[in-house]
Amino acid sequence: MNTRAQRAARLQPEFAIDGLPYAFRTATMEEAQAFENQVLEKLNAGKTVRSFLIAAVELLAEALNVLVVQVFRKDDYAVKYAVEPLLSGAGPLGELSVRLKLMYGLGVIARHEYEDAELLMALREELNHDGAEYRFVDDEILGPFGELHCVSALPPQPALLPPGEADEALLAMQQQRYQQMVRSTMVLSVTALIAGIGAKQPSRLSPLGARNGVRASRRVTGRAFCYNAANPP
């Protein structure tokens, strides 16, 4: 190998997928894990149903915003002058519900993710018009949360003795433990939903990004290994 070829080899990444160096994709995976940790931390900080739902919808909006930008052109000019105006308050994609429908319509998110996101948004909107403070174990909350696809199963309610037949301290402890179990289930389930949406790769899933197969290559024992992202083996 001549000097020029050696210099070029040092600049060429050993393995690239979708035109991106492997190191870049590793960083992207790390960012996805960091986002999941952020979602978990913020949802867990919501000690009331209201604060939990507010945080959930805000994080959902953040994840959808990232997806929308990825679906469209990614150069700085397009993002600044074409994509951002679409996402502004007065733009056609200014409303979260519209962005959600767009991502579902393009096939970026699955139906169960779309339905769960819609239900969370509807719950938050309902609480905006309801001044009552609900507990995580109230029927008004357990009912809708039981319909979420991301919730595999809510903890069963413990069999409590009638107030007159049980020690009040023990009864309060059982109720508190049950509420903590329900809240933890909700936090973990919604974290999985939002983190899953945030980890999507629209370039592979949407018809806009998958229109043309992107090829990646690496050298393996002197031969080129090719991978077609649109038609994986």
Automatic annotation (TrEMBL):
Example of a GO biological process term: negative regulation of DNA-templated transcription
Coiled coil: none
Top-level taxonomic group: Bacteria
Signal sequence range: none
Alphabetical list of PANTHER family matching this protein: FUMARASE E-RELATED
Protein name: Mannitol repressor protein
Organism: Serratia rubidaea (Serratia marinorubra)
